[in-house]
Amino acid sequence: MTTEFRTATDPVISVRNLHKWYSGVHALRGVSLDFARNEAVGLVGDNGAGKSTLISILSGLNQPDEGELFVDGRPVRMRGPRDAMDLGIETIYQYNSMVPSMSIARNLFIGREPLKASLFGIGVLDEARMRAESVAAIADVDLHLRSPDALVGELSGGQRQGVAIARAMHFKSKVLILDEPTNHLSVKETNKVIGFVRSLAAQGVTGIFISHNMHHVFACCDRVVAMAHGRVVLDKPIGETSIEEVHEVL
Amino acid sequence: MRRLLKTFLQKPELAAALLLVLLVVLFQWQSNGVFLSQANLRGVLGLLPEMALVAVGVTLLMICGEFDLSVGSVFALMPMSMAVLMTQGWPFLPAMAAGLLVCALIGLLNGWVTIRFAIPSFIVTLGMLFMARSLTVVISGGFPPRLDMARIPEEIFIGFVGPGGILRASFLWFLGIAILVSLLLSRTNFGNWVRATGGFLPAAQAMGIPTARVKIACFMICSILAGFAGMIQVLRVGSPLPSMGEGLELAAVAAAVIGGTALTGGIGSILGGVIGATLIRVIDNGLVLSRVDSNWFKFAIGALTILAVVGNAWLRKRGRAMKVEG
Predict the structure, then answer these.
(1) ipTM of this predicted complex?
(2) Count of domains forming chain B
(3) What is the DSSP string of chain A?
């Protein structure tokens, strides 16, 4: 069974008929979606609706059991997060993407460290460059931190989110997935994240914004996609729907 | 200045380093100057590399978030395999290479089983502790084989070097290896992956780090270092005993923990592990020189382990709470 969905003329990511089972649970039941270039899409749904499963497939953490995935119109098969990153898809998780016991500079480059010299992929870190680039990357997202050597564990939730955003932007992503980025943030920090999602289009980045909070989604997205029981149940431009209508279908 | 102090307080090996200085002064005074005499230092530094090499590997693995309780048995199995092969006519170098290969395979197996079946490495390596010990006894045939020292260039490993022969070559091997592993951990991308894997596994995985391979590599390094250390001890005493290295796994964990390595992974340093191992050796030697009943040795190590963890947590908290401007 397939659901009706909105097609885009030049989608940056398309998925067709995605299915995923988790130990007997049918988590995704034929999801098809297009993400248009420079569009900010809000993905909403209750716990267990399949949002996280869809996101984990888009970010390369999981592979679909069935269905196809296209990036820039080409079929792709991602075997890990690295493949997604190489395709320009960056994901920001609420908790899962920073190591608290490591410095900001170290965190920014985990898995993509600049090297001075290397042999078989193992090499000497270019620490001066890591520091300089992380200072620049953090300044670029309008965040002010005292030192790239400070431990991430010492930062506030909002600052951590800022570092995660700086990392994604530094690596010139074309699709940015934000998984519940406003959870546990103060009002001020939340507004900052919402402002940032709004600014993505101007920077040529497609945003996929996952949230429980409908107000946040309506404040910064162009389009809202609602999921329930592993299916897309609503897919409309923000202007053509309302918070009430989305709540209705969930 | 405050920032410097803050960084200093957050160094995991700080508490142990301070304690080491304190104890050296204490023992020097208690023993009427014998402790730092050349003859005594020669003894302490001659024994140190054997435990310290094991501690280096265990520390690295613990920073990666895993445990290895089988190092004491591997410490015995490596030289036993080497000695048995040599009694069958193998020359020294191939026999040594084969022994180290056995260690590498044990590390590979420890890591693979831990990851493939998602069980705690504590359990896997506890099993390996018994299996490797049993293998050691089985291949020895009950009789410890005698090493034919004439066929071994033992000077390269245990010969006395330096002014007045104060050091053994084994100390230089240990120093070189410790520096190498320390640089690997602090200056390379691999080290970054080790810290990320041990510090917060989901983040490391989400960032695309091959965490399984990183862990297995650490298991293998740990096993190889334990085996190499065992070989050095056997070259020093002349014959492999099936019971050697018993209890060493816990001493190595104690050394790592005393040196500031967190049991939860991600935090620690090779230097800390080395300082921890040195502390244990210094206490062992210092108690004897101070004419304290040597049965107190284990009590001291135990108390020190607990004290170090409490002290480290306190220092780290103080350092973290310290505000710096800007």
Answers:
(1) 0.85
(2) 1
(3) --------SSEEEEEEEEEEEETTEEEEEEEEEEEETT-EEEEEE-TTSSHHHHHHHHTTSS--SEEEEEETTEE----SHHHHHHTTEEEE-SSTT--TTSBHHHHHTTT---EEEEETTEEEE-HHHHHHHHHHHHHHTT---S-TTSBGGGS-HHHHHHHHHHHHHHTT-SEEEEESTTTT--HHHHHHHHHHHHHTGGGT-EEEEE-S-HHHHHHH-SEEEEEETTEEEEEEEGGG--HHHHHHH-
